[in-house]
Structure formats: structure tokens, C-alpha cells
Design brief:
The chain has a single domain, classed as Glycoside hydrolase/deacetylase (TIM Barrel, Alpha-Beta Barrel), CATH 3.20.20.370. Helix content is 34%, strand content 20%. The chain has six helices and nine strands; from the N terminus they run βαβαβαβαββββαβα. Helix 4 links the parallel strand 4 and strand 5. The radius of gyration is 16 Å and the shape is globular. It starts with a strand and ends with a helix. Bound molecules: zinc ion (ZN). The site of zinc ion has 5 residues, from loops.
Amino acid sequence: MLDIHFTFDDSNTSDIWCGQVLHSLGLVGAFFLCDSVDLSQQVDGLLRLGMVVGNHTEKHLNIASKSEQTVLDAVMPFNERLKKSGASGDYFSYPFSSGRSGVIDRNFKYIYRGCHEPTEFSGEISRVSIFKQGEEKGGKWVAGPKKSDDELMRSTLPLQLHAIPNCEREWFLKMARAYAERTK
Ligand SMILES: [Zn+2]
């Protein structure tokens, strides 16, 4: 199993830059994508950097209380497209870190959830969710549960990130370098 410390949900314009940073430090990140106009380019760019590309449903569907058929439709044709672009098709992360479905358990090897959620199936992996406070509060990163940067750098669970805006690039570099140092 790959050693993945950084995960990114939602298909962000910063994904490629984050992948380049991780690649330059010898780290692997998992990027969970939804559909976008440049999907195959995005998948290709991330795979070329040695990153993992996963499924976050075609349209960011909240799976909680959806029928099996609805989940299948939202996930499997999209997974075929990811595979056609070169992705393994083995990785999934739940939109809104919400719900749980046998469809996902049966079709994916590595299933990422948010924090506070006990894992049930063998493939399920908890993450430390990191949210950004409003700009009016200084745009500081906060983790749920609240953790300092030092605690995050020592986390044994992968971090769950989204877009890394320009103003947070230094923060991300600091975290990535700390993990690279740790894995030496
Ligand atoms: Zn999401």
C-alpha cells in the first residue's frame, strides 16, 4: 500500500501545483476528482507526477440515503472514464464525508472518509479534515478536531485538503517538507 499523507478533494486548479511539490519531495498525494471539462488532462498531469487519482463521484453527490442504483450511476461510469485516462479506479473519497454505501465497499480498494467517522469496512481510511476559516479571521487553517501545525505534521492519519490558494502555498510547502523529512 502506498504511503499517502496528503489527499485533495473536489478537483481544484491548485492540484497540479500541489502534485509538483509532492513529486519534488518524493511524496505521493491522492487527488479525488469530480467531472470537469479538462478531466483527462487533469488525470494525465497528476499521473505523470506519480500521484494517485481517485473518484469523488461525477457531480459531488451526497451519498447519504441514496439508493444503490443512484450511487452506481453517480460513481461507476465516471470511474470507467478515470480508468480510461489511466487511473487505477481503486480509490474513492465520500463527498461531504457523508454516508456509506455497499456499492463503494464492493468496487473500491481504498475508501477515504472524514475525521470523527469510525471506519467499518476493511478498505476505509480516516482522514484529518482541514478547513479554512473565513478571510475575515485572517484566513488561518484549522483542523477538525482543532490541531496545531506541529500536531498536523506528526499526524498518523492522512490530511484531507481541498484547494490551496496562493496565500496558503507557503503553509503547504512547510507541511509537505515536514512530511518529506519525516519519511527519510
Ligand atoms: Zn468534496
